Amino acid sequence: MILQRGQRIKLADTTNSLQLEIGVKLTFPSAQEVDYSCFGLNAAQQLSDDRYFIFYNQPQSPEKAIVSLPALEAANFTVDLAKLPETIKRLVFVATLD
User: Which residue, 40, 43, 22, is CA-closest to 91?
Assistant: First the structure.
């Protein structure tokens, strides 16, 4: 499934699996260096635990529920919802131009 920038989906509408691989890729007219990250947010839509800010310098959550995989032109994350703490209610994937 390909999503457009800003698009939101309910996971239950796409799969029943608890193990997911999520790819994130942006294209630009000219070469850009992009850093991809994932935020695990609580019910208040806040990052209440820095261990759930997954990025190049912290490539996985403590229990490896969210793992950033090395990639050259895109970002790939594995997510195991069965391992994710109940306090994490939403995952947000972002891209930052370096």
Answer: 40
What is the C-alpha separation between 82 and 59, in angstroms, rounded?
19
State the SS3 of the chain: CCCCCCCCCCHHHCCCCCEEEEEECCCCCCCCCEEEEEEEECCCCCCCCHHHEEECCECECCCCCEEEECCCCCEEEEEECCCCCCCCCEEEEEEEEC
CB 54 within 8 A of CB 77: yes
pLDDT tops 80 at residue 88: yes
Asked if residue 94 lies in contact with residue 39, where contact means CB atoms within 8 angstroms, the answer is: yes
Tell me the whole-structure pTM to 2 decimals: 0.84
